[in-house]
TrEMBL record:
Membrane-spanning parts: 7-28, 40-60, 72-98, 110-129, 141-164, 184-204, 249-268, 315-335
Gene Ontology BP annotations: transition metal ion transport
Membrane topology summary: Multi-pass membrane protein
Stated name of the protein: Cobalt ABC transporter permease
Localisation: Cell membrane
Chief location category: membrane
Biased composition (Low complexity): 342-363
Domain PDGLE positions: 247-337
Amino acid sequence: MHVPDGFINAPTSAATGVIAAGAIAVSLRGARRELDERTAPLAGLVAAFIFAVQMLNFPVAAGTSGHLLGGALAAILVGPYTGVLCVSVVLLMQGILFADGGLTALGVNITNMAIVTTVVAYALFRGLVKVLPRTRRSVTVASFVAALVSVPAAALAFTVMYAIGGTTDVSIGKVATAMVGVHVLIGIGEAAITALTVGSVIAVRPDLVYGARGLTHKLKLRVNGELVDAPQAEPEPAPVAARTSHRKVWAAGLAASLVLAGFVSFYASADPDGLEKVAADHGIDKRAEEHAVADSPLADYGVEDVDDARLSGGLAGVIGVGVTVVAGSAVFWAVRRRRSDSTSPSDTTDTTDTTPSTSTTSV
């Protein structure tokens, strides 16, 4: 759903740019609370993984493909504020290096693919986990539903933007029907990828899934015949085994990202994605403009002067994963460091539900 330059007029693009900038500023502040010793190392990896999986277009209908947006996945794994930043980093790398998504439309893309998907998905996810049983399976189910809904929500947001600032005279009703219809199908693929990824991480390190924290039952003690909440124990330093497992999860995630972008992406569907198909069918693409960095050596996810298509695409994917994980990690390290610098030792204990409470059962 990468919107190119020319689809949306300048005033609307500028307005969405202001919205995106404001949301990123808020997210930078909010991410300070989310980025702890578990979340911070994974945030850059989540951005790289989203970049890699977005290269894997999957067929959804005759002549149409879809790809992961990633807002739901990022929000559930590392938190909603950090999730907005993860997807924004991916979109920035794609726009600057790979000529994917217009630069003047960067605000539109961040608003649609980072803000709308993350807010809608995480709000729905939190609502579901409150009413579902407190189990790992419930977290996975909630992830599936949240991701599924987030994609047509983003499609609807684009339609609203196009109704306000579209550059061609087309029926908004037809655009809305086509956009939402095809993106419901794409949402099924998004939901499957999100649930599979979240479920895989929960299976090995449930404490690394931000959305699964705080879902444990508090330990009860019987005092004078009545059940009362037991005092919460002070958090203990992570054992060496847990830290090792954390590094293994990070290494496995990076390896998977490199394989997906460097090898599996060659077999992705070549059909236009949902937005491209709707734009072609309804004449929206008549006003599309050439990308400002169309002559980039990595434009269209290929390496310039490398004639072999498989090698060119694979190298571009590997470079993209590497650049994204470095850029993302640098951003989140800086945010985490600023939190550490601004927090006194007596304030380091977080009283929100971002840390698991003492319990008799775990998710």
